């Protein structure tokens, strides 16, 4: 009997780093700007350190993360380029940012004062032009701008588009607000950036000095732009059952067999990132065919209704094969971002 490595005994993700780099190169070529790749949420679930090291081939300006801890982890992985932390700076974290050479994002006056009091270290300010999430609001009193006069560490200013993939009119509104806010600042910082994947793929209009691609790098479709697939999520068949017409499958007998059929149990469940919403709605690739997920997805297992031949140990591809990442996300009623970042720690990442 052939021995199966422990890391592929149940489920694993095959990550094609060459495809990741190719997608990043597409963004750079279309936008004409230097890259600030987003590797937050552990590189959208694929492994931040591995993705960052692969992207070094394109000479990015630096990398974007969401949290201080993510930045610290990249430093531990020997990433030496600038790391911009997009969670707004808390004054209590000034020392931690400085200690790990992390650039903060600042979007309120209190944090700006705290950072400036610590010296002339680099920082970026966020300008909220309609996302209504974080940053200095575009309608607010700009008195805080006075603090930037003579601030030697002031390196960048940016905004975030909320609907670049499907609403160009909203992008233009936010862009006009952004330009107006830049005009009231006491000078232009060295780095201005606004474009996410969708806006960067529109060309040079919103590219500025840096672009911040995210989901497109990792294989997610952005509007009309298709990326090269980067990851295949795979799982083995652990058991086979013949059921008769009328038999129920999984918790709550949520699926009833309409005829005699075979049920294949995969070693992957919602604890590994297969969303419960895919029960009776999802489909996966198995032995060259697309077959349906039946019954409720459980914590550790997912069941399929299949047509033999099939054997224990056969490998199914949840997405990244005949069923794409975006197709499975649509079936789950969500977006590709959630499927990628939902992949749990039990899913080994294998790089090529």
Question: Which H/E pattern describes the elements?
Answer: EHEHHEHEHEHEEEHEHEEEEEEEEEHHE
* Radius of gyration, whole Å: 23 Å
Kindly state the percentage of residues in helix.
25-40%
Oligomer: single chain
- How many strand units? 19
Percent of sequence in beta strands:
15-25%
Content-based structural category = alpha/beta
Q: Biggest β-sheet, characterized?
A: 8 strands, mixed
Q: What is the molecular shape? A: elongated
Provide structural commentary.
- The protein has 352 residues and is an alpha/beta fold.
- The model has no long low-confidence stretch (mean pLDDT 97).
- α1 packs across α3 and α9 packs across α10.
- Strands 1, 11, 14, 15, 16, 17, 18 and 19 form an eight-stranded mixed beta sheet that branches.
- The protein is elongated, with a radius of gyration of 23 Å.
- β5, α6 and β6 form a beta-alpha-beta unit.
- The two termini are 27 Å apart.
Which features would summarize this protein structure in a list?
single chain, 352 residues, alpha/beta, eight-stranded mixed beta sheet, seven-stranded parallel beta sheet, 25% helix
């Amino acid at each position: 009997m052939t021995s199966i490595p422990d890391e592929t005994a149940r489920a694993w993700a095959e990550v094609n780093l060459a495809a990741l780099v190719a997608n990043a190169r597409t963004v750079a070529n279309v936008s004409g700007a230097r890259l600030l790749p987003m590797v937050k949420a552990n590189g959208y679930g694929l492994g931040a350190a591995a993705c960052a090291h692969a992207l070094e081939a394109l000479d990015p300006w630096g990398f974007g993360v969401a949290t201080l801890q993510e930045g610290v982890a990249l430093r531990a992985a020997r990433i030496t380029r600038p790391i911009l932390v997009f969670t707004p700076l808390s004054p209590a974290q000034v020392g931690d940012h400085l200690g790990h050479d992390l650039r903060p994002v600042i979007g309120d006056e209190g944090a700006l004062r705290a950072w400036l009091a610590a010296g002339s270290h680099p920082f970026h300010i966020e300008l909220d032009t309609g996302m209504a999430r974080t940053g200095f609001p575009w309608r607010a009193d700009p008195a805080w701008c006075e603090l930037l006069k003579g601030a030697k560490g002031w390196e960048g200013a940016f905004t975030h588009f909320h609907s670049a993939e499907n609403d160009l009119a909203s992008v233009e509104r936010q862009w006009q607000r952004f330009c107006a806010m830049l005009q009231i600042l006491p000078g232009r910082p060295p780095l201005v950036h606004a474009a996410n994947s969708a806006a960067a793929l529109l060309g040079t209009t919103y590219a500025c000095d840096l672009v911040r691609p995210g989901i497109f790098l990792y294989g997610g479709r952005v509007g009309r732009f298709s990326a090269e697939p980067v990851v295949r999520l795979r799982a083995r068949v652990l058991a086979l059952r013949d059921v008769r017409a009328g038999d129920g499958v999984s918790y709550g007998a949520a699926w009833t067999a309409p005829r005699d059929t075979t049920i294949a149990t995969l070693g992957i469940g919602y604890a590994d990132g297969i969303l419960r919403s895919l029960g009776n709605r999802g489909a996966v690739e198995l032995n060259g065919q697309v077959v349906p997920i039946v019954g409720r997805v459980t914590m550790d297992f997912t069941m399929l209704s299949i047509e033999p031949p099939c054997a224990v140990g056969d490998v199914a591809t949840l997405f990244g094969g005949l069923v794409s990442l975006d197709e499975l996300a649509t079936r789950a009623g969500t977006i590709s971002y959630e499927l990628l970042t939902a992949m749990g720690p039990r899913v080994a990442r294998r790089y090529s």
